[in-house]
Amino acid sequence: MSYCKNNPALISHMMFFDPPFRMPAMGNFFENGQDYENMCYHDVAPAVALPAPGTVVLRFFAPDATCVEVAGIGGGMGNTHHVMKRSTEEDGWWEITLHDIPEGFHYHEYFVDGNRCLNPHAPIGYGCFRPINYFEMPGEDSSFYYLNDVPHGDIRMEQYRSPVTGRIKACWVYTPPGYEHAHTESYPVLYLQHGVGENETGWIWQGKANLILDNLIAENKCRPILLVMNAGYAFLPDEDPTFFPGDYETELIHGCIPFIEQKYRVAAGRKNRAIAGLSLGSVQSFAIGMGHRDLFSRIGVFSGGFPISRPEYDYTALLQNPEELNASLDLLFFSNGDQEPMCTSALASIHSLQEKGAHVLSGAAYPGYHVWDVWRYSLRDFVKQAFGTEEMI
What we know:
Layout: H1 8-11, E1 22-25, H2 27-32, E2 40-43, E3 48-52, E4 55-61, E5 68-72, E6 82-83, E7 85-86, E8 93-98, E9 104-112, E10 115-117, E11 124-127, E12 130-137, E13 154-161, E14 168-175, E15 189-193, H3 202-205, H4 209-218, E16 226-230, H5 248-263, E17 273-278, H6 280-291, E18 298-302, E19 309-310, E20 313-314, H7 316-319, H8 322-328, E21 331-337, H9 343-355, E22 361-366, H10 372-386
Parallel strand pairs: 15-16, 15-17, 17-18, 18-21, 21-22
Antiparallel strand pairs: 1-2, 3-4, 4-8, 5-6, 5-9, 7-8, 9-10, 9-12, 11-12, 13-14, 14-16, 19-20
Helix pairs in contact: 4-10
């Protein structure tokens, strides 16, 4: 796949879909009230431009500022504050060109006279507990999450009542292409969890999960499946905050899953049910999946290291018994970015258990840090292994 910087998957987000390369010049319109004939559009330089692989040009409009800076929040972009310069056109824009930016997804922040600000002209996602700017540096292996000319599934927003908090909660559901017309067909389902500081929207807007599935299904690398994305927080009003945000296990098992299976055509049995997640969601998925192997046969742990024991659970004995592990699961998939500190030790532990006969155990490392491009790779390969096109029993 050749380098591509204009695919809609790279530049669309929750605030817009079409490229914002044309902006309205509405000064006369506002001044004259109803003077619609003077409203026009003109080309403007984008706030994020990718002139070459590894190079990004960032622009910020702040005509009254004395200093504008931009910084990553770790990962491949680092967290150094880069001082932007005023545009030579004296038009109120500040800009900077950064080089040696690695492939992948990059959250970043702007600082105007020392104050953290959103760039309203650049892509905005939701992460780190807040709206935040990002850009995508595409690579040679990015097309698996592009918006390609293939049949597309639907994304639906559902509401169900949490049996833990009593609140109405939202979940997003992906249905595969043809779901509306295949009235007698039932589908496997994957419950897919976000990370800390994110919510149920992340796997669609930042993760491109729907596009990944569209492309895999079109390439006959994955069976059509349902995908369910929840907000993994189930705090009670007086509950102390901990790493595990409330009793999400009860909410999923007794709230969301019954709702989904009543409303959607879900294939019966644990063989057709999987759970996976990233970071916090990976630990939730491991804990819930391992604790309910009567419900889930496939578990995906993305950027969670290899935490087979914590104060909340201990599955050391099970994973040291390959015969029992192989009998109780069809797939236990672990993945990390190769720049994540836990990657090397996690892979070593997995390889050791594989050598002892744990053939349902799978481990993978992908280029990158604790960030969305690693999790996209993880979802792609987990789904291919968990829901391959062979007939499921």
